[in-house]
Write a structure and sequence with these properties.
Number of strands of chain A: 16
Structural class of chain A: alpha/beta
Radius of gyration of chain A: 21 Å
Number of helices of chain A: 11
Oligomer: homodimer
Strand content of chain A: 25-35%
Helix content of chain A: 25-40%
CATH superfamily of the largest domain in chain A: Ribonuclease Z/Hydroxyacylglutathione hydrolase-like
Shape of chain A: globular
Chain lengths: ~300, ~300
């Protein structure tokens, strides 16, 4: 299996601070490069991290609050200035077309060098919105005060093809091999051969779930089920749960409860209110419910 | 005289680099706080520098290329989030209304807490566009590939009122004093007393001129005349003067020639193309024409 590289480009929320940029999560897998959210300053964070922003394939925007989306304009203009030709895919909730339109027509800019493929996502239940055979992206509507999506990156494990066994079962080498590999049953001289008979064990695949601005919700649990890492909104400590409720956010304790229910391996809490000078208290609180919690800093990386 | 504090918040150009943010120049004088340009990331640069961004009074935008203006949206939204009530003045070239309108209606944002006073500036010759008695701001149209303004901050020196001399000339204490102080001639028992007779010597006042993206032009010279500091576009070294011409920019040598013609005291070159790892060669080139040249880094301060 290939490695999945995750870079926390911006771990703050609402407003940038000295130490935390605005939300942006970078995932690279098998030569595919994607961003989840793109707060103001993301292009600079990518440059500081030395990431190949020219090679971005797709951007997933959770919602249109400024801190999650205002970096798109600068990034797109820079890609155009540097003569990108390749199409860029952008996914986001209802209204993505209008938002992108405003963003890319501000000032004197005219996007000329490449196409944007804009995809409006509606997903009341976790829904696969992209797949290329190597990995898939699923999305679901969360519970914020405006339409807001969570996303899961999921590796698609290829099961090993057991060639000797296939030959033993009488399958001739050739197109029938491919069909079995792709999960189809095939007819061999009147006998049905099933993929499970000629494919190795299903392998554990890697999954990273991003659940930004939201109240704790069952949709987040479903989306995150079994993830290696759940990156979750944790704007407040639980003594400010009223503020979390008012703002459509989660407390550290609530984030940990979601992680526990979803059976994830690790919880990364982000988007702390700027009132917290560091995330120690938030991590401590979350750990009482879900021990394997951490608070990533900007530019921290995870390799799975 | 009060001090004028200038902070170079972003000294890069076109695209942010690891070391240089996008253009923004902060000037503070007598409790007035203003920004010249507001590239993406400016609100964060202000926070890192510890500047009181809530207390900004006015913002002067040179032009609407992304690198000079895309930080406005995030800054305005943050001011609103932090419950600013005071009006914010914004000045910029033709089209400022439309540009601001797009910027502040992107996503779900509705500006509710304070008013924006938007001022469209047309100035073929250096024109005073703001004055409050303590200082004035002048603007002039430069020579870029889109409408682009340069700005001068100029302290207004108050001349000392020579009270004893006024009494000797028969001016009675009271309202006539104020009128003389404000530059009016007054009639004292049929005799005309002129302000120059009762005011001290005119004092040297401080002047800072900001000439961003432009070909070297006479308008820039007029705007900068006698400035303490001229902050000037210097995107390329002179061996790339063709690139400078094509992009509507200046070379280091050209910036130095403008500084020399305008008789300024110091030249600060900024907006280097990202091809230059540092500004040494650009400074060296400019110094052959204008010795008192420097290349500020982000967060450098000048106190005048």
């Amino acid at each position: 299996m290939s490695r999945v590289r995750t870079v926390f480009l911006g771990t703050g929320g609402s407003v940038p601070t000295k130490n935390r940029g605005l939300p942006a999560l970078y995932i690279e897998y098998e030569g595919n490069r994607m961003l989840f959210d793109c707060g103001e300053g993301t292009q600079r964070q990518m440059r500081i991290a030395g990431l190949p922003f020219m090679k971005l394939d797709r951007i997933f925007i959770s919602h249109f609050h400024a801190d999650h989306v205002l970096g798109l304009g600068g990034l797109i203009q820079t890609l155009d200035l540097f003569q990108r030709k390749k199409k860029l895919e952008i996914y986001g909730p209802k209204g993505i077309e209008d938002t992108i339109d405003k963003i890319i027509t501000t000032g004197h800019f005219v996007l000329e060098g490449f196409d944007l493929e804009i995809n409006e996502v509606r997903a009341k239940k976790p829904t696969r919105i992209y797949s290329n055979g190597d990995y898939s992206i699923s999305a679901v509507q969360l519970d914020h005060n405006v339409p807001c999506l969570g996303f899961s990156f999921q590796e698609i494990a290829k099961r090993k093809f057991l060639k000797k066994k296939a030959l033993r079962l009488g399958v001739p080498e050739g197109p029938l091999f491919s069909r079995l590999q792709n999960g189809e049953e095939v007819d061999v001289n009147g006998k049905l051969v099933k993929p499970d008979e000629v494919l190795g064990k299903p392998r554990q695949t890697k999954k990273i779930t991003y659940v930004p601005d939201t109240r704790p919700c069952i949709a987040g649990v479903h989306l995150a089920e079994g993830a290696d890492v759940l990156v979750h909104d944790s704007t407040f400590a639980h003594d400010l749960q009223e503020s979390a409720r008012e703002g459509g956010h989660s407390t550290a304790k609530e984030a940990a409860e979601i992680a526990k229910k979803a059976g994830v391996k690790k919880l990364a809490i982000m988007h702390p209110s700027q009132r917290y000078k560091d995330s120690k208290a938030l991590v401590k609180e979350a750990k009482t419910v879900f021990p394997d919690t951490f608070a990533p800093n900007d530019f921290d990386e995870l390799i799975l």
